[in-house]
Amino acid sequence: MKTVIKNGTVVSDSDCLQADVLIEDGIISEVSSSIAAPDAELIDAKDKLLLPGAVDAHTHMDLDVGFTRACDDFFSGTVAAAAGGTTTIIDHMAFGPKGAYPWHQVKEYHSLADGNAVIDYSFHGVLQERADDRTFAEIREIAEKEGITSFKLYLTYDMMLHDKDVFAVLNEAKRNNILITVHCENDGIINYLRDRCGEEHKLSAAFHPKSRPPDAEAEAVNRMLYMAECAGEAPLYIVHLSSEAGVREVIAARKRGQKHFGVETCPQYLVLNDSLYDDPCEGLKAIMSPPLRKDSDRFCLWEALKNDILDTVATDHCPFTFKEQKQRGKDDFRLCPNGAPGVEERLPLLFSEGYMKKRLSLPQLVKYVSTNPARIFGLYPKKGVIRPGSDADIVIMDPGKSYTLTGETIHGNADYTCYEGIGIKGAIDMVLLRGEVIVRDNKFLGKKGNGRYLKRGISSLC
Ligand code: URP
Ligand code: ZN
Ligand code: ZN
């Protein structure tokens, strides 16, 4: 099957080029100034932009948090992703049962995603509680057999790793070209402050950000960067950076000459601020970790993106319903499931708040949402670029359209969006996954189970 997209502007992480794109059997076969293909189905993209399908390296579909599960499974969550121009996700596995080793969750996640996902997908492995010889043997085997070349650890939460194990993991990762992704917050600070909130009956949503201050993030970012350096520059990827204090640690490491690390931020930390917690009821919608910060943090993160100090923008999509699941925290924020939806809003928000507001160039936008995540997580050039030989994952954007984000029209199972009422300049016309149109005018046209599992290669950070 052949498709030709004519008259559009193809955007890469380095430039914008007026070009036609020929697709044969799901793969891009030609990108050039004028392609004649009379036997191909024609898509006219005049005045439109062609972006490589976005890659979201941080989602939590069907996440089991013990007392409940994230309300999007791999079907509803990937439909939402597709509607927002994301054609690949790399999902962060939940912790397994106490005592579980890494293979346990790999098998569990295949049973959740296979046959359900509508876009292509991979997983980050998860490390919990300890790091011993069996953990390391399983990591090596999973990387080889499953193409899972990144593993996540946490510096807080019940099944976090302590520093000695973290350092052992980093040394092992360095030896085997495994990328370690980390949730950076200082567990001691958080638990002390949460206990104090309990003792002082400060339990409304407004105390969530106070119990997780920016310095708790900065300390953990600093610690991870130094530990990775001490392990001979073990490859490291810091997820969901939220604060100016955290950015300062990243800049310091770059100034020291540390190279083998990447840093992610998320749209919520760029677009929203902690005033959302002022209303004790509505504030539950934004209970996530790290919490939303001040405007000064937001501006610093935008500046860091503009100056190429950060590497990716992912979503940390982890949705719970407001009417039911989030209400668990109404009398005590500590009981609220942590996380918020966002997989659908990422590309439109970055296009509108980033490119249209001149905070980012178009190549930078593509770099942050598509090319860099593909490179860092071993998917490039199959994903993350529109060029011959790559999968024909393409988003056709109309920069001339505008609309308002609302919970009524998003596709996932969450009953709200944190971005309610925000005006978006630019709209997605069409999304192609391996040459097939899966979204047109905000309607999902793909098929359950058509997403393919992706075995990934070695990270560009190794
Ligand atoms: O609040 C969040 N972000 N929930 C998902 C788990 C995590 O920490 O990434
Ligand atoms: Zn996290
Ligand atoms: Zn997360």
What does this protein structure show overall?
This protein has 462 residues and is of the alpha/beta class. The protein has a single domain, classed as Alpha-Beta Barrel (TIM Barrel), CATH 3.20.20. It contains 12 helices and 17 strands. The strands form 2 sheets. Strands 1, 2, 3, 4, 5, 14, 15, 16 and 17 form a 9-stranded mixed β-sheet that branches. Strands 6-7-8-9-10-11-12-13 form an 8-stranded parallel β-sheet. Strand 11 (236-238), helix 8 and strand 12 form a beta-alpha-beta unit. The two termini are 37 Å apart. The model has no long low-confidence stretch (mean pLDDT 98). The structure holds N-(aminocarbonyl)-beta-alanine and zinc ion (2 copies). One zinc ion binds at residues 183, 239-240.
Summary, kept brief:
The chain has 462 residues and is of the alpha/beta class.
